[in-house]
Amino acid sequence: MPKTAEAFAPAKINLCLHVTGRREDGYHLLDSLVVFADVGDRITATLADSMSLRVDGPMAGSVPVGPDNLVLRAATLFEPPIDAAITLTKNLPAAAGVGGGSSDAAACLRALSELSGRALPGPDRLLGLGADVPACVAAEPLRMQGIGEKITPWPSLPPLWVVLVNPRVLVSTPAVFKRLERRDNPPMQIPAEDAGIDTFVQWLAVQRNDMQSAACQIEPVITDVLTALSKTPGCALARMSGSGATCFGLFYDAKSAEQAQATIASKNGGWWCQSAAILK
Ligand code: C5P
């Protein structure tokens, strides 16, 4: 039997995302609390004589299957290459601010590393795939700084649930960066380590996503998503993730999140809505 490995590619959520500066090469300096949800894509990899990628799942149509796919680009980071037949089950919307491609790439690296017994590529090579890839390889609550390369584990997170809502518009990350009015915003403040859930959410409410207003200017429907989420009973906070268009509503329990998902989905047929627990 050929050896097979499976890896989960969880949705990435930027609970806050501060743009604090810009490097000479044009890349932006970020300060973000990044968490992961118990919904996501899945990678299955089987050792084979050549490299191949098959994509299935509800969002399969939204990603390329050719060499541009981040999963195949990730596989090329191993030297010598590891040939495998890879299946990507795509459940998350692509180019949506929830790390789809980066999380898929990270899961592919984990699966190939398990199959081959080889170490994961180093941080510089991961960053070359995308700014979110080092965070997605860590796949635990963390503070992300620099342009995405500086990762610090986040010590404690209260139990939280989210509803992820994507209005099915594609937002270009460089276009959002380009439209920013300020690039020198203050960094995150750091909450007390033993903050209870209310204190944590109050703290989070005064942090920001500095890309949100630029993304809303490009795609005003994002404002409608944020309004729909914040009007839902039990929603403690509504904010955009990454450069959009996916937004999250934060909830204190699974039932409220599931009810909110059902309510928003029933009123907005074309939107992608998904409730999930935040992984600790
Ligand atoms: O690395 P990723 O594919 O997510 O980035 C997409 C684009 O967003 C980059 O090519 C760059 O133009 C911009 N970007 C940036 N600063 C970052 C990350 C991305 O300006 N820290």
Automatic annotation (TrEMBL):
Active site: 12, 132
UniProt-annotated binding residues for ATP: 93-103
Record organism: Meridianimarinicoccus aquatilis
Alphabetically ordered keywords of this record: ATP-binding, Isoprene biosynthesis, Kinase, Nucleotide-binding, Transferase
Biological pathway: Isoprenoid biosynthesis; isopentenyl diphosphate biosynthesis via DXP pathway; isopentenyl diphosphate from 1-deoxy-D-xylulose 5-phosphate: step 3/6
Start and end residues of each GHMP kinase C-terminal domain: 217-265
Family affiliation: Belongs to the GHMP kinase family. IspE subfamily.
Catalysed reaction, written as an equation: 4-CDP-2-C-methyl-D-erythritol + ATP = 4-CDP-2-C-methyl-D-erythritol 2-phosphate + ADP + H(+)
InterPro entries: GHMP_kinase_C_dom, GHMP_kinase_C_sf, GHMP_kinase_N_dom, IspE, Ribosomal_Su5_D2-typ_SF, Ribsml_uS5_D2-typ_fold_subgr
A GO molecular-function descriptor: ATP binding
EC number: 2.7.1.148
A GO biological-process term: terpenoid biosynthetic process
Primary role: Catalyzes the phosphorylation of the position 2 hydroxy group of 4-diphosphocytidyl-2C-methyl-D-erythritol.
Any Pfam family the entry gives: GHMP_kinases_C
Gene3D superfamilies cross-referenced by the UniProt entry: 3.30.230.10, GHMP kinase, C-terminal domain (3.30.70.890)
GHMP kinase N-terminal domain mapped to chain residues: 69-131
Protein name: 4-diphosphocytidyl-2-C-methyl-D-erythritol kinase
